[in-house]
UniProtKB/TrEMBL annotation, chain A:
InterPro entries: ETF_a/b_N, ETF_b, ETF_beta_N, Rossmann-like_a/b/a_fold. It comes from Devosia oryzisoli. Its cofactor is AMP. This is Electron transfer flavoprotein subunit beta. The lineage of its organism: Bacteria, Pseudomonadati, Pseudomonadota, Alphaproteobacteria, Hyphomicrobiales. GO terms for molecular function: electron transfer activity. Keywords: Electron transport, Transport. It comes from the Bacteria. The keyword Electron transport applies. PANTHER family: ELECTRON TRANSFER FLAVOPROTEIN BETA-SUBUNIT, ELECTRON TRANSFER FLAVOPROTEIN SUBUNIT BETA.
From TrEMBL, chain B:
This is Electron transfer flavoprotein subunit alpha. GO terms for biological process: fatty acid beta-oxidation using acyl-CoA dehydrogenase. Pfam families: ETF, ETF_alpha. Belongs to the ETF alpha-subunit/FixB family. It comes from Devosia oryzisoli. FAD binds at residues 218-219, 232-236, 249-256, 270. The keyword Electron transport applies. Residues 3-171 form the Electron transfer flavoprotein alpha/beta-subunit N-terminal domain. SMART domains: ETF. Coiled coil: none annotated. Binds 1 FAD per dimer.
Length: 252, 307
């Protein structure tokens, strides 16, 4: 089985982001960037499928500026076999990303495509589902467990009401949730080895997909600020505060 | 300008969030509601004020079939809308891709026919977007809108759904509880990993009972197995907007705060006066939750709150 994993370079999830004062967006220059956490779980899942003997090759793809090479190298260090960078300097919408990935799927013909369930910058949660629709492959989103059973997958999904287990035929598209696994740390020798693995760099513009945006971002603003309130000194005082709140609610 | 809204279901009932979605969608035009469920669910949807027509197709359906059901219907509408729930997230991007439309999702404010506000970066920024496409595929955060009232009498129409799915549902593990729905609850009590165990969460649930509150948890508490996954509040869990949120033993990580930004009042119970949640809470009590929570529950019970 051949697996394609899509990984995105985003502002590191531990960074407290800053909205540019002119409302033009979120400051990303001079900010630590890393692989989107959900993509890490997707890469880990692929590597575990190889280690368990269910899969042979892992190809990792990222779309973005040259600097996205970093996250491809991280995936290669984790155990992916080769990388593809589709270079694009402008911001791309999720539909465009999905179309570019569909073009890669057409070329690579993977049996399984693994993605993160969402990118923590735009928080879209679109691309996996869009790719499934564009490539007419069944999808399993928000996966917290994946097992391969012949030509089928059994996937446990985290949904609003709890969990559900589905079976779907390969080839398929699966998006990873955080409880899927614990991504491994990459030791230095692996990072060194990753540098010698094949990495193809192409311009995203080559794939025949219109890269222009459909939506206009008018402005980006910070959320309303919350400030510290007061401390209460005892449980009784707190009970009084809560009771007052509740009574006010009931009054409305 | 007409709207097709995918009803949000909760098992074999209509989810309370559907009335909120109707209220939001009504800002865009007259609303038809599609129910991928039973005729009785369709009947409840028909009573929501402002609903023009209910279309019922039987169900529940997995994403691929739902998309195939929506696709031909979508041609008759300017807007196709769903909740920003696991259902909406599963199907709407698929539909959008099939229709070659860039969707706008997790909408928290509608500022005009094609002007929407959505959070990015776990709610640490708000993006205002204009969507000049001739048709729109949207998901809306129900918690950001007030519910439409009842008393409607929309006609119900049954349609066929002849499609077959490649995906099979093998098992559904529904977390059974009789507490209010987390996403739409007026009061929520949340517990963190410091609650320490499933038994510890019973204290949180008991506090919740005294307030008729929904119960939530942090990711750390869910990961540790102390609370079911559908209790998770935050960037990757449920988004809540209660009038009152009581955060017990929760540090207030960015990803958790992402889920509670809509809360009107936040009360924190934490042993650490420097915890980030304390810095944003309206009221905080510093101390050991195992000491505070049972006492607080007893005091509230004694006050006999009418809820
Ligand atoms: C991509 C990504 C997505 C995430 N999504 C989510 C999400 O959706 N939701 C979410 O919640 N998290 C999410 N997280 C995790 C998040 O970063 C935090 O790790 C998590 O919220 C911390 O949970 P906690 O507050 O229970 O634990 P901790 O951060 O460990 O905090 C425990 C708190 O309990 C207090 N405490 C300890 N003992 C006591 C006591 N006896 N009495 C009172 N107080 C006590 C401590 O002072 C501390 O403040 C995500 C992380 C990532 C990377
Ligand atoms: N620029 C990108 N390059 C590669 N993969 C991406 C890119 N953007 C999104 N993805 C994939 O799609 C998933 C969901 O992203 P999103 O729909 O943007 O929230 C991510 O976790 C990645 O696996």
């Amino acid at each position: 089985m051949k697996i394609l994993v899509a990984v995105k370079r985003v502002v590191d999830h531990n960074v407290r982001i800053r909205v540019r004062p002119d409302g033009s967006g979120v400051e990303t220059t001079g900010v630590r960037m890393s692989m989107n956490p959900f993509c890490k779980h997707a890469v880990e899942a692929a590597v575990q499928l190889v280690e368990g003997g269910s899969a042979g090759e892992i190809v990792v793809v990222s779309i973005g500026p040259k600097a996205s090479t970093d996250v491809i190298l991280t995936a290669l260090a984790m155990g992916a076999h080769r990388g593809i960078l589709l270079e694009a300097d402008q911001a791309l919408e999720t539909l465009t990303i999905a179309k570019l990935l569909a073009a890669v799927v057409a070329e690579e013909q993977p049996d399984l495509v693994l993605l993160g369930k969402q990118a923590v910058d735009d928080d879209s949660n679109h691309v996996g589902q869009m790719l499934a629709a564009l490539t007419k492959r069944p999808q399993a989103t928000f996966a917290s467990a994946i097992t391969v059973d012949g030509a089928e997958l059994e996937v446990t999904r985290e949904v609003d009401y709890g969990r559900e287990t589905i079976r779907l035929p390969l080839p398929a598209v699966v998006t990873a949730d955080l409880r899927l696994n614990t991504p491994r740390n990459t030791a230095l020798p692996m990072v060194m080895k990753a540098r010698s693995k094949p990495l193809a760099v192409r311009s995203a513009a080559e794939l025949g997909v219109d890269l222009g945006p459909r939506l206009t971002i008018e402005k980006v603003s910070p959320p309303p600020e919350r400030v510290a309130g007061r401390m209460v000194g005892s449980v009784s005082e707190l009970a009084g505060v809560i009771a007052a709140e509740v009574n006010e609610m009931e009054a409305i | 300008m007409s709207v097709l809204l995918l009803a949000e279901l909760d098992g074999d009932a209509l989810s309370p969030s559907t009335a909120r979605l109707v209220a939001a969608a009504s800002l865009l035009g007259p609303v038809d509601v599609l129910v991928a469920g039973s005729a009785s669910i369709a009947q409840s949807a028909a009573t929501i004020a402002g609903v023009n027509r209910v279309i019922v197709a039987g169900g529940p359906l997995l994403a691929d079939r739902l998309q195939e059901l929506l696709e031909p219907l979508a041609a008759q509408y300017q807007y196709v809308v769903a909740g920003a729930t696991t259902l909406g997230k599963d199907v709407m991007p698929r539909l959008a891709a099939r229709l070659d439309i860039q969707p706008v999702t997790d909408i928290v404010a509608i500022e005009g026919p094609g002007r929407f506000v959505r959070p990015i970066y776990a709610g640490n920024a708000l993006e205002t977007v204009t969507d000049p496409q001739s048709r729109h595929v949207l998901t809306i955060r129900a918690s950001a809108f007030r519910p439409a009232s009842g008393g409607g009498e929309a006609p119900v129409e049954i349609i066929e759904q002849p499609y077959d799915s490649a995906v099979r549902l093998i098992a559904a593990h529904r977390t059974e509880s009789d507490v209010p729905d987390l996403s739409t609850a007026q009061i929520v009590v949340g517990g963190g990993v410091s609650v320490g165990s499933v038994e510890g969460f019973k204290l949180i649930e008991r506090l919740g009972q005294s307030l008729n509150a929904a119960v939530g948890a942090t990711r750390a508490a869910v990961d540790a197995g102390y609370a079911p996954n559908d209790w998770q509040i935050g960037q990757t869990g449920k988004i809540i907007a209660p009038d009152l949120y009581v955060a017990v033993g929760i540090s207030g990580a960015l990803q958790h705060l992402a889920g509670i930004q809509g809360a009107k009042k936040i009360i924190a119970i934490n042993s650490d006066a420097e915890a980030p949640i304390v810095k944003i809470a309206d009221v905080a009590l510093i101390g050991d939750l195992f000491d505070i929570v049972p006492k607080l529950t007893a005091e509230l019970d004694a006050l006999g709150l009418k809820r």
